[in-house]
Amino acid sequence: MKATGIVRRIDDLGRVVIPKEIRRTLRIRDGDPLEIFTEKDGEVIFKKYSPMGELSDFAGHMCDTLSKSTGLPVVITDRDSVIAVCGAPKRELYMKQVSAELEKLMEARQLYHLKPGEKKVAVSDSTDKYTITVAAPILSEGDVMGSVAFFTDGDSTVGEVEIKLAQTVSGFLGKQMES
What we know:
Blueprint: H1 20-25, E1 34-38, E2 44-48, H2 56-70, E3 74-78, E4 82-86, H3 90-93, H4 100-107, E5 112-113, E6 131-140, E7 143-152, H5 160-178
């Protein structure tokens, strides 16, 4: 754990303000759920809660199936990071923060399909080696939970089948989140 040197008081309603700089750095947005942990020595730890994290094993199996059936690399993300990857080295993408561009695509709540001549969107902030060819947002009860994306490390394109698969799997995962 890293000390920030920032001290905040609890107000009379029991609230603590998380400074804007920390919220920006950790990509904590208004309405984001935070999980609270306590330690015996009095520590209180806030951690961003990812409902998609509970489906990470399942998402991993879905990712593996998609990659094997299409021969293309696939990632499944929550709103902040890659939670499953198949068809590419895991160490390069797994648990890495999604790129700001991918985050914007998810927030748009629309299917994304790379068109010839269009600016490429990186999967992760940690590397621009892998770019998205198709991304479908995972929506649950109207909220963005993550995305299912086919990607490449070159100039590969995808067809209608991959577009429909990304939409289908994202819809399925969204329904799983609601149950």
